[in-house]
Amino acid sequence: MHQHTHSKNVRDLRTDAFNKLQRVPLKYIDSTPHGDIIGRVVADIDTVSDGLLQGFQQIFTGSVTIIGTLCFMFSINVGIALVVIVITPVSLIVASTIARLCSKKFKEQAALRGQITGLAEEYIGNQKVVKAFSREEYSEEKFEELNAKLYKVGVRAQFYSALTNPSTRFVNGLVYAGVGIFGALSAIGGGITVGQLSAFLSYANQYTKPFNEISGVVTELQSAFASARRIFALTESDDEISDADNKVLTDVSGNVKIDHVDFSYVPEKELIKDLNLDVKSGQQIAIVGPTGCGKTTIINLLMRFYDTDKGGISVDGNNIKDVTRDSLRLSYGMVLQETWIFEGTVRENIAYGKQDATEEEIVAAAKAAHCHSFIKRMKDGYDTIISDN
User: Fold this and answer.
1) I need a surface site. Which of 113, 255, 280, 344 has the fewest CB within 10 A?
2) Cα separation of 83 and 254, whole Å?
3) Where is the ABC transmembrane type-1 domain (predicted)?
4) What is the pTM of this model?
5) Do residues 351 and 266 both lie within one domain?
């Protein structure tokens, strides 16, 4: 039952994280390495899953054992049981002190792991460029530098974590010794019998075991908490500004006006200043310029992937901030510089922007793109399974 509930919670957390990515502003996606985001949704959630599963199992069973043995010890002799209660916080203080040291290192480790995932994703996705410029050695050096940092932080985290269990065992040994000393004195004075002392020592031993076992999973717990912080940094980030009350843009004729627009990705670096553009329906224009001059940025603003800092953009006289994003974006036909294929059939990829497209519309689109004959030569035609690879 516990395993089922845990697995369900992990599934829900991963679903929430992925769904959150559909709602965050594009600025978040653009400013965060894609590999790091993938690491949060996949690897970090697995780390949380493994750590919390082991940790909470130990905490649950340990808590039951601690409460049970305390009850038995108090039933035998209240005075000696109080000695156990008084010494126990020492074990907790030692464990929490070491845990604080571990926490910082595991947090660094989780961040570096995300950076490595991002770097690997970047270089794997751009291997042609790396090889074309003979930058393999540079790539290896950059990866090794980051990997070495991860190794050092990981070793330190494991070292601090490894101190927890023996330190806790030492303090728990003091508890056991304290029980033995006070119990022996009480037995000599006639406070308890030798049999009761023997039983008390047995319970004291059972009482300290959960602390040793819990300290043994500190590594997994600290790593899980560090990964959880990265996941919550994603799930608790701000959503794209809601447009629930905005109207739906319909029957678009194609009049687009950009009116005195200012925009910058970074506040101190202005990219577009007082841009004005008035394009009538049916008019064809081309915007040309060097790399970085703002051509793609204009598309980002028209599609409302980003909002303007000043000025406004209107479509058929409607300010794009006053209409829903979905209706605005469905009103455009956009062809990106870099194509990307989703895993699925050729038919599904062509109809991605219009899920209710008819067979005739799909074929017409393929013919317009001059790929109908090529598709028909495939073994399964429009039902051929393809992917970006």
Assistant:
1) 280
2) 83
3) 1-223
4) 0.61
5) no
